[in-house]
Amino acid sequence: MAHGYAARKDEHLKRLRRAEGQVRGIARMVEEDAYCIDVLTQVAAVTKALQATALNLLEEHISHCVAEAAAKGGPDADEKVAEATAAVGRLLKL
Questions:
Q1: 22 with 48: CB under 8 angstroms?
Q2: Distance linking the first and last C-alpha atoms of the chain
Q3: Is the CATH number of domain 6-92 3.30.110.30?
Q4: pLDDT in tens, 34-55
C-alpha cells in the first residue's frame, strides 16, 4: 500500500533537504558567533518550512489514508481519525 504522500515524495524530500541545509547554515552561524537576532530569524524560517511540510503531509494523510479508511468504515476508520487527530495535536504543541 502506498502512503498518501507517495505522489509528491520527491517534492517533500526536496523541501526536507532544503530545511536540512538551513539547519546546517544556522549551526555555522552559531559557530561563527553571528548576531543572535540573525540566528533567530533563520531558526524561524526553518521552523516555518518544516511546519509547512508537516501540514502538507497531514493533508495528504487525511485525503488518502483517512478518507480511504472512512469509506471502508469499521474500526480502521476510527483508528485513522484518532491518528490524524493525534498528529494535529502534536503539530499544535510548539
A1: no
A2: 32
A3: no
A4: 999 999 999 999 999 999 999 9
